Amino acid sequence: MEQLAKKTIDQIEKVFDIPSGYRRAHARGKSYKAKFTATGSAEQFTIASHFQKGETRAFVRFSHFSPDPMWTDAMSPVKGMAVQFHLSDGRTTNIVGVTSPIFFAKTPEIFSEMIGVVKSFKKGKPNLKELGSLLMDYPESGAMIKNIRKMQAPSSFTTGQYHAIHVFYFINQQGQRQPIKYVWEPETVATLSPLDVVKLPIGSFEADLEDRMAEGSVNFRLDVILGQPNDPTDDPTVEWPQDRERLTIGSLTLTEEAAEIDKIVFDPTCVTQGIECSEDRILNFRHHAYQISHQRRMLES
Ligand code: HEM
């Protein structure tokens, strides 16, 4: 996996303009300190300490998905929200979400093949013909196109629904395993039409976040979707049926800006006692890809 991760990061560097010191994906973003308050409703499913009723300190980074930080906000319709919880025993654990309920590649090999086909996304100009032929070759990736309405850019970082996409297992006191998916829900969901988003100057999402923080608080709810037997746990290209039960397990309030977060890596496989990663190969591959990106950008800065 590590070799393939290195090859994939090399491929991303070849295809995109990535200035020295930047993340190899989600390069441009803005970071805050935050406070997470658990409702206690997850206690029956997990012994994870930050999900027992009470407060935990956290860091949050919002981002535009492009590896090129100079792409406009419109060119990166998928936005990211990465949260790192600071647990009372000094350890950390992460939830990394994007404004799409599914990912376009089922396996690391397919992801790498797809990136390999793309000749260049430099200067922010993807080749539409190349993209079209990719979707013909990888039909499961077409699900993202069918889902395009759900992938419209939010009108602000604060109005997006952020899905962690992969399945995780909650483990309770009795050792029972419950498959779950995380979703960060904003106070108000609002999207922008592709025409409106094109008019936005670069950095307008970050400026909007500053304005909203100056006006008052920014909050998100953390929901988990509870999986049922036979719901797929290893495939990030499919959603679970819409009627699955949802539970609100906490809320997050941003407190103040925290530029220092640029140094940390939000590895989605960094879990804690009471939570396990699923067998999803993309999830486990991300551990290696993020470490390599982190090592390279730290050496450069
Ligand atoms: C093959 C699959 C993937 C690869 C190779 C990949 C690669 C990367 C890399 C290299 C970074 C920068 C890491 C760093 O330097 O700290 C990153 C960041 C990020 N990725 Fe992925 N990614 C993949 C899938 C996903 C998926 C499925 C999601 C959806 C939840 C996602 C969401 C994010 C977010 C939100 C960030 C920014 C985190 C931050 O703010 O530091 N990625 N990705």
Automatic annotation (TrEMBL):
InterPro entries noted in UniProt: Catalase (IPR018028), Catalase_core (IPR011614), Catalase_sf (IPR020835), Catalase_SrpA-type_pred (IPR024168)
Binding of heme, residues: 290
Presence of the UniProt keyword rRNA-binding in the record: no
Gene Ontology process terms (BP): hydrogen peroxide catabolic process; response to hydrogen peroxide
Catalytic residues, chain numbering: 26
Gene3D superfamilies: 1.20.1280.120, Catalase core domain
UniProt KW keywords: Heme, Iron, Metal-binding, Oxidoreductase, Peroxidase
Single Gene Ontology MF annotation: heme binding
GO cellular component terms listed in the entry, alphabetical order: cytoplasm
Every Catalase core domain range: 1-301
Positions in coiled-coil regions: none
Keyword Phosphoprotein assigned: no
Superkingdom of this protein's organism: Bacteria
Family: Belongs to the catalase family.
Name of the protein this chain belongs to: Catalase
